[in-house]
Amino acid sequence: MKKTLLKVHGSGNTFYLYNSENEQEFDWVLLTKWLCKKENEGGADGLLLVVPSQSADAKMRVINADGSEASMCGNGLRCVARFVCEKLGKEEAIIETMKANLHVKKEQSLFEDLPTYAVEISPVSFLLNTLPMQYKNQTQIQHETIKEFHPSIEYTAVSVPNPHLIGIVDVHYIQNISHQQSLAEYLNGENEYCIDGINVSYVYPMKNDTIFVRTFERGVGFTNACGTAMTASALVSKQNGIVNSAEVLVYNPGGFVKCKVSQKEEQYQLTLIGNATVVAEYGIEIEEHQYKFVSRKETGEQIQYQRCIDYVKKETEVVLS
């Protein structure tokens, strides 16, 4: 049978998006692993599955490239937000995710005419058992050195709801990824701290309202961008005085986003704003567990996004040189 998928991305974090009325229609793990192979049209970071919801306008599931399932994905949610809003002819919607129903809305473009969406990132917790993570007998790790990880980098652990370890670093650790890679691979393998793995981000403060973030994402590896990681990094930076603005500009290898950080009583309210780009529409033949691409139609949107990338390269030249 022939099915249609979209290839989409938020900040260069690339996915296939498939809309189904039947959540059990296919073996999503096998399909995702095949779609994400580099030799198949360049691969992707995962599959965004859009299915009916009993409590929201639609439900999103996120299958990572290795077949594992993420509880949330900020970059992917923006792409799903656009798909659902355009399908329903609305500018705002509620999307069901694994841990929460989240508000999404169309926003003014961040760059030229790029389709741009704002998505709620929630829930937020600094309790280690929500990641889950364990370190000695602590209940939290907030902006502190962990000698087992590095003698001087200050780390914060937070779930949003994906688990994140955020390190504030100098530019050397952005330009040279070896330490971050070594730590992330360890924490996503057999280890005593994170039994389910963790996303590891290194954050370099550029200005009082701007940071650069590089993320090693569990189930994926180094990625152009991770939406929940960028939001978590903005939160940690604001919380610890690294930035002093409620709206943080976040650069990453795949582009840039804006993250809004506010607090009401003891609850953090986080919003991720960025592009939702549709690269192409694909036709795929599926017969049992055999898959084959049969058509591809470019949208032309990636041409404009490339101009955004060129702009980001100029803005981050000092960081990445």
Order of helices and strands: EEHEEEHEEEEEEHHEEEHEEEEEHH
CATH class descriptor name of the largest domain: Alpha Beta
Could you tell me the strand content as a percent range?
Answer: 35-45%
Cα radius of gyration in angstroms: 19 Å
The main pleated sheet reads as:
19 strands, mixed
Q: What level of helicity do the residues show?
A: 10-25%
Would you tell me the structural class of the helices and strands? Answer: alpha+beta
Low-confidence stretches are none
User: How many domains would you count in the coordinates?
Assistant: 2
By DSSP, the count of extended strands is 19
Cα distance, first to last residue?
A: 48 Å
What form results from the Cα inertia axes? Answer: globular
CATH superfamily of the largest domain: Diaminopimelate Epimerase, Chain A, domain 1
CATH topology of the largest domain: Diaminopimelate Epimerase, Chain A, domain 1
**Average predicted local confidence, pLDDT:** 96
Catalytic activity: (2S,6S)-2,6-diaminopimelate = meso-2,6-diaminopimelate
Keywords: Amino-acid biosynthesis, Cytoplasm, Isomerase, Lysine biosynthesis
Subunit structure: Homodimer.
GO molecular function: diaminopimelate epimerase activity
Give a description of the structure.
The structure is a single chain. The chain has helices spanning 28-35, 74-88, 172-175, 178-187, 227-239, 301-315, 317-320; strands at 2-10, 13-19, 46-51, 58-64, 69-70, 92-96, 101-107, 116-121, 144-146, 150-159, 163-168, 199-207, 210-217, 221-223, 247-252, 255-264, 267-275, 277-287, 290-298. The protein is built from 7 helices and 19 strands. Strand 7 and strand 8 (116-121) form a beta hairpin. By secondary structure, the protein is of the alpha+beta class. The protein has 2 domains: 2-120 and 275-315, Diaminopimelate Epimerase, Chain A, domain 1 (Roll); 128-268, Diaminopimelate Epimerase, Chain A, domain 1 (Roll). GO terms for molecular function: diaminopimelate epimerase activity. Pathway: Amino-acid biosynthesis; L-lysine biosynthesis via DAP pathway; DL-2,6-diaminopimelate from LL-2,6-diaminopimelate: step 1/1. Catalyzes the stereoinversion of LL-2,6-diaminopimelate (L,L-DAP) to meso-diaminopimelate (meso-DAP), a precursor of L-lysine and an essential component of the bacterial peptidoglycan.
